[in-house]
UniProtKB/TrEMBL annotation:
Binds 1 [4Fe-4S] cluster. It comes from the Eukaryota. Its EC number is 3.2.2.31. This is Adenine DNA glycosylase. GO terms for biological process: base-excision repair; mismatch repair. GO terms for molecular function: 4 iron, 4 sulfur cluster binding; 8-oxo-7,8-dihydroguanine DNA N-glycosylase activity; adenine/guanine mispair binding; metal ion binding; oxidized purine DNA binding; purine-specific mismatch base pair DNA N-glycosylase activity. GO terms for cellular component: mitochondrion; nucleus. Belongs to the Nth/MutY family. It comes from Pygoscelis papua (Gentoo penguin). Keywords: 4Fe-4S, DNA damage, DNA repair, Glycosidase, Hydrolase, Iron, Iron-sulfur, Metal-binding, Mitochondrion, Nucleus.
Length: 413
């Protein structure tokens, strides 16, 4: 069995826990950012409406910065102020509003869950973290904890990237913070720390601390409300203490939360020695040929053909210019040929590879794919009858294109 972590890594002193809670909440009350979802949650008397407002914000904030989310969130809540309103929306409408926010499956799952609440749960939101996670698609452990604590007052902790960083620094946890064993320990700590009378505020305070003070690089340690509880800061200030055993000596006993022996403390990094993360996997490279087919519309304005992507996989259900993946190392001449063959299905007529005009290349980085779009254009004369047996497709003006559910990558194209 793995060795249990020494007490130095954990929060076990009730007096220290109470002091940390008080300091953090006092700081949050004074310094928290004014964010629209917080304002809604603070003023909404109905718990289920409050939960919906928090839920939307938490899904949007997954892997997306606050500054980007604010505008999307305001537009979303204006269009669908209640869960019932969202349940009646179409996926196309959801994708249109979500366009540019990335990770599009989030919006799709959010709507699926809203429909489930309305159709299967009599419009009543689950009220505990356990039920939220079990019953709602797209709601994981963190999101469930955030909704339950902020909206329903359940004394349950949360662990996201910001909380991981704060806890790892507070207790000098240098083991790989993405490993399941370490994550489980961090959840134990978060549940032990959460304030029983103000769980939602405490969880938001912990996340706020990581987002604004205990940041990944150049943390503002002097402004930290809980700096007196931070072992990483103490180590930075005083170095390794004299013969009294402390957290810095845990590694000798095979401590599962200490940094590995191969990665000793780097004094130049200070508190940013923590947390340690596994090496990031490099995104794979991919190339896609895409063609902007253009025709003259009935009012003389140019129109462009867009087609809908499959309902599953990357950018599911979004619209794009006709595109197809390219094999690695394909020569330019061969690229034109395979693209011309692909376009023949859409135009219903032969497409001469030489007629494709090369425009340039567009690079777009997805979380796991370094995508290069090889862009061509092709003006078409006369009317083109679209085959209804193919994927959904339509002709749009430039204005209609930008109002459609298209990805940021296609807007670049």
């Amino acid at each position: 069995a793995p060795a249990p972590p020494p007490a130095q890594h954990l929060f076990s002193d009730p007096a220290e826990i109470e002091a940390l809670r008080g300091s953090l909440l006092a700081w949050y009350d004074k310094c928290k950012r004014d964010l629209p979802w917080r304002a809604l949650a603070a003023t909404e008397p109905d718990a289920d409406r409050r939960a919906y407002a928090v839920w939307v914000s938490e899904i949007m904030l997954q892997q997306t910065q606050v500054a980007t989310v604010i505008d999307y969130y305001n537009r979303w809540m204006q269009k669908w102020p209640t869960l019932q309103a969202l349940a009646q929306a179409s996926l196309e409408e959801v994708n249109e509003l979500w366009a540019g926010l990335g990770y599009y499956s989030r919006g799709k799952r959010l709507q699926e869950a809203a429909r489930k609440v309305v159709s299967e749960l009599a419009g009543q939101m689950p009220r505990t973290a356990e039920d939220l996670q079990k019953l709602l698609p797209g709601v994981g452990r963190y999101t469930a904890g955030a909704i339950a604590s902020i909206s329903y007052g359940q004394a349950t902790g949360v662990v996201d990237g910001n909380v991981i960083r704060v806890l790892c620094r507070l207790r000098c946890i240098g083991a790989d913070s993405s490993s399941p064993a370490v994550i489980e320990r961090l959840w134990d700590m978060a549940n032990a720390l959460v304030d029983r009378s103000r769980p939602g505020d405490f969880n938001q305070a912990l996340m706020e601390l990581g987002a604004t003070v205990c940041v990944p690089k150049a943390p503002l340690c002097g402004e930290c409300p809980v700096k007196q509880h931070c072992r990483a800061r103490r180590r930075k200030l005083f170095g390794k203490p004299a013969p009294v055993p402390d957290v810095e000596d845990c590694g000798a006993g095979g401590c599962p939360l200490c940094p590995p022996a191969a990665e000793p403390w780097d004094s130049s990094l200070g508190v940013t020695n923590f947390p340690r993360k596994a090496a990031k996997k490099q995104p794979r490279a991919a190339r896609t040929a895409t063609c902007v087919l253009e025709r003259r519309g009935c009012h003389g304005a140019p129109e462009y053909l867009i087609v809908q992507r499959p309902s599953s996989g990357l950018l599911a259900g979004l619209w794009e210019f006709p595109s197809l993946p390219l094999a690695q190392g394909l020569q330019e001449e061969k690229q034109r040929e395979v693209l011309a063959d692909h376009l023949r299905a859409w135009t219903g007529r032969p497409v001469v590879a030489g007629g494709l005009r090369f425009i340039g290349e567009v690079v777009h980085i997805f979380s796991h794919i370094h995508q290069t779009y090889v862009v061509y254009s092709l003006p078409l004369d006369g009317d083109v009858t679209l085959d209804p047996a193919l994927s959904p497709s339509r002709w749009v003006t430039e204005k209609e294109f930008h109002a459609s559910a298209v990805s940021t990558a296609m807007k670049k194209v």
